[in-house]
Automatic annotation (TrEMBL):
SUPFAM superfamilies assigned to the protein according to its UniProt record, in alphabetical order: S-adenosyl-L-methionine-dependent methyltransferases, Tetrapyrrole methylase
Tetrapyrrole methylase domain segment(s): 1-182
Residues annotated as transmembrane: none
Protein name in the entry: Precorrin-6y C5,15-methyltransferase (Decarboxylating) subunit CbiE
InterPro entries linked: 4pyrrol_Mease (IPR000878), 4pyrrol_Methylase_sf (IPR035996), 4pyrrole_Mease_sub1 (IPR014777), 4pyrrole_Mease_sub2 (IPR014776), CbiE (IPR012818), Cbl_synth_CobL (IPR006365), Cbl_synth_MTase_CbiT (IPR014008), Cobalamin_biosynth_MTase (IPR050714)
Gene3D superfamilies named among the record's database cross-references: Cobalt-precorrin-4 Transmethylase, Domain 1, Methyltransferase, Cobalt-precorrin-4 Transmethylase, Domain 2, Vaccinia Virus protein VP39
NCBIfam families listed in its UniProt record: CbiE (TIGR02467), CbiT (TIGR02469)
One Pfam family recorded for the sequence: TP_methylase
Annotated pathway: Cofactor biosynthesis; adenosylcobalamin biosynthesis
Organism: Streptomyces viridiviolaceus
Lineage top rank: taxon: Bacteria
Keywords attached to this entry: Cobalamin biosynthesis, Methyltransferase, S-adenosyl-L-methionine, Transferase
Length: 410
């Protein structure tokens, strides 16, 4: 049997558990904080594979093993690796208070509506995009992905970072800083977790289901759900297929270029992605902000003309191009060179299709497309109905082959 004990932010491990252990595995600070049996072998966790091999030797001989971990080891912790290697039936898990729960407790906030992202041993960009998209996020940090790096990435976002260090120890410290202040400091190695908060929305409504709030399961919303100018909005039939090809999800960054009303960007944000909308007109910028606020989502709006303004933005996972005019080939080229997964282009003008397709192919993307034509039900006098045709739209999409090979694109 492997007894997995969570410690660090709660009570110390029970002495009777340690007393019978023949092998104790844990981080150096965990091992130094407890009294071990004189006959027990100790393994300081570094690379996980050698430690698991040692555990396997003891388990194979039915000798008791204790693994010490921080907080709740079943929450982004070692329980997953142990269960995969030895099977959950061999584990006796005794969780402590997780660093996430402790950090939210220190600032007096509930966390049933929080999103938790791990940047420990992982790429930081996913956690950054989750922080951009949601008002209450806990980030588990690691070397090279700590408060300074997170703050540097979030400088332009209206967020407060709560940096919790040494939780449960005599050196515990909880500090509220701006992203810029976080970026300017050396935080050392004692950071337990970082909370990223939009303090205006840190107290959400009463919940029946934990996790980020999803306003509605609906998507491809009616045009009436958005403020727009003279019907200059991506129609819901086009938006439905565009969203399917973009595949927005939590942790993604989506560009909405030539955003207009921002309907595509807002819908991507409603599905959990971080969104940057690029719009060259001042009234369009205000319209996008109003639509994002009306739907309760965060959309960063950049006022400027593509492709020039794109150079200052972080690389996106997916891009929707809904405008561009004569600059469309250059805009699509710039987007296609930087998109990690896909680019979707909507065009009403037939003449622009070949150049947009060439731009997608020239950037190494696999290209496909469709002409969308639809007719909607419309009332006529006498309580009868006719079909009213909408303007046909070409939708092209390019997919990076590596993304398809990795199963990212369905």
């Amino acid at each position: 049997m492997i007894t997995v004990v969570g410690t660090g932010t709660g009570a110390p491990p029970p002495e009777d558990v340690l007393a019978g252990a023949e092998l104790v595995v844990g981080g150096r600070r965990h091992l130094d904080a407890v009294r071990l049996p004189g006959t027990a072998e100790r393994v300081v966790l570094g690379p996980l594979a050698p430690a698991l091999d040692t555990v396997a030797e003891y388990v194979g001989k039915e000798r008791p093993v204790v693994v010490l971990a921080s907080g709740d080891p079943g929450f982004f912790g070692i329980v997953r690796a142990l269960a995969e290697r030895f099977g959950p039936e061999r584990l006796d898990v005794r969780p402590g208070v997780s660093s996430v729960a402790a950090a939210f407790a220190r600032v007096g906030l509930p966390w049933d509506d929080a999103v938790v992202a791990s940047a420990h041993g992982r790429e930081l960009r996913t956690a950054v995009n989750v922080c951009r998209a949601h008002p209450k996020v806990a980030v588990l940090t690691g070397p090279g992905t700590g408060p300074a790096e997170l703050g540097a990435a979030l400088r332009a976002d209206p967020r407060i970072l709560v940096v919790a260090s040494g939780l449960g120890s005599a050196r515990e410290r909880v500090e509220r800083v701006t992203p810029a202040e976080a970026a300017a400091r050396d935080w050392g190695t004692a950071v337990s977790v970082v909370l990223c908060l939009d303090e205006r929305r840190a107290l959400g409504p009463v919940r029946a289901v934990a996790g980020p709030l999803v306003e509605s399961a609906g998507w491809a919303l009616d045009e009436a759900a958005f403020a727009h100018r003279d019907s200059m909005i991506t129609k819901f039939e086009v938006r439905a297929l565009a969203l399917a090809r973009l595949g927005p999800r939590p942790g993604d960054l989506v560009w909405d270029v030539g955003a207009g009303s921002g309907s595509v960007g807002v819908e991507c944000a409603r599905l959990g992605a971080a969104v940057t909308a690029v719009e060259k007109t001042r009234d369009g910028v205000e319209r996008i902000r109003a639509n994002a606020a009306a739907h309760g989502v965060d959309v960063r709006v950049v006022h400027g003309a593509a492709p020039a303004v794109l150079s200052d933005l972080d690389d996106p996972d997916a891009v929707f191009v809904g405008g561009g005019g004569r600059e469309l080939p250059a805009v699509v080229t710039a987007c296609a060179r930087r998109a990690r997964r896909s680019v979707v282009v909507a065009m009403a003008a037939l003449d622009r299709v070949p150049a947009a397709r060439a731009a997608l192919l020239g950037a190494g993307l696999e290209c496909d497309g469709v002409l969308l034509q639809s007719s909607r039900l419309a009332p006529l006098p006498g309580d009868v109905t006719r079909l009213a045709a909408t303007n046909p739209v070409f939708l092209l999409w390019g997919v990076r082959p590596a993304a398809r090979d990795e199963g990212v694109v369905q």
